[in-house]
Design goal:
It contains eleven helices and nine strands. It is α/β, with parallel strands linked by helices and about 300 residues long. The strands form two sheets. Strands 7-6-5-8-9 form a five-stranded parallel beta sheet, sandwiched between helices. A four-stranded parallel beta sheet has the order 2-1-3-4.
């Protein structure tokens, strides 16, 4: 490929990345995957870099994954949680970040409930920013680890049929996956209740279907999302039980397909709602591989952004 640097200074969304950027991240992630499977899992690559993890919204899996990636790269880490910060006392986002930058921080990993918050910061500060999720907008590293996991499992994404099933309206994972899968040449279909399908899907070239059985028959990969009750200001569903009845993925459905499909889930899983335990744990499932790949992909993203600083 010959390309060893990203075309961007920040990773704010998949929309800003080129196909070459995505494949460079994948290539680098493969190398880091070997590192994290060695007895000594650390490399001194970012030992001169200080990274601030700014989480203005609760997160467990993403925060742990980024922290582990940073530690594996030997970076210095500053953890910031909005719940115990001056944000509660009325400090603005820019003031908070400028105070952190005054401590000579090189990179910022940020999760924020407001769509566009990392893009706003990128216009005002010099540090590299990596978006760890902004509202219901984008979650670029999740889409990168999802698409990387598909490539690792199937060898190629181009021409593959990928179904994204569940709560599309409240999912930043879905939005980033649409952009990444489109760039890499996949066919995308979404499936879920009409009340959880945003109106803009047609403009993204995404097919919308409300029949779970037909969707599973069509796809090579099923990426199953949870119902995000914490983001729903009004009730979009009669009940979780009814959602499960019409859109839950069961072992019986998978067994009746007559073909093998890849099962994915970005987590956390609501077992017995969007997916049966037997499906989450079946041999077709790569949910735990997604978690491992998440660390490698985030190591790659941090490393490549740091290379651009040189």
């Amino acid at each position: 490929m010959g390309k060893s640097q990203l075309s961007v200074k920040h990773i704010l969304g998949i929309k800003d990345l080129t196909r070459d950027d995505i494949y460079l991240i994948f290539e680098t992630a493969r190398e880091f995957k070997q590192v994290i499977n060695r007895p000594i899992k650390k490399v001194p690559t970012l030992r001169d870099i200080t990274i601030a993890n700014l989480f203005f919204e609760d997160s467990t899996r993403t925060k742990l994954s980024f922290e582990l990636a940073e530690k594996r790269l030997s970076a210095d880490i500053l953890n910031f949680s909005a719940s115990s910060s001056s944000v509660k006392k009325g400090e603005t986002l820019l003031d908070t970040v400028n105070n952190i930058l005054a401590m000579k921080v090189d990179m910022i990993v940020m999760r924020h409930p407001s769509p566009g918050a990392p893009h706003f910061l990128a216009k005002h500060i010099d540090a590299n920013i990596l978006n760890a999720g902004d509202g219901t907008h984008e979650h670029p590293t999740q889409a990168l680890l999802d698409t990387f996991s598909i490539v690792e499992e199937l060898g190629e994404i181009k021409g593959k049929n990928v179904a994204i099933i569940g709560d599309i309206m409240h999912s930043r994972v879905a939005m980033s996956n649409f952009f990444a899968l489109k760039k890499l040449g996949a066919n995308i279909r979404v499936c879920g209740p009409p009340t959880l399908m945003p109106k803009y899907l047609g403009s993204l070239g995404v097919e919308v279907v409300h029949d779970i059985s037909k969707t599973l028959e069509w796809c090579d990969v099923a990426n199953i999302l949870r119902i995000q009750l914490e983001r729903q200001e009004i009730q979009y569903l009669p009940s979780l039980r009814e959602y499960n009845q019409y859109f839950g993925v069961t072992k019986e459905m998978i067994d009746n397909l007559g073909k093998k499909i890849v099962i994915m889930h970005p987590g956390p899983i609501n077992r017995g709602v969007e997916i049966e335990s037997e499906v989450a744990d079946c041999e077709n499932s790569i949910i735990l591989e997604q978690v491992e790949n998440g660390v490698a992909v985030r190591m790659a993203a941090l490393y490549l952004l740091a290379q651009g600083r040189a």
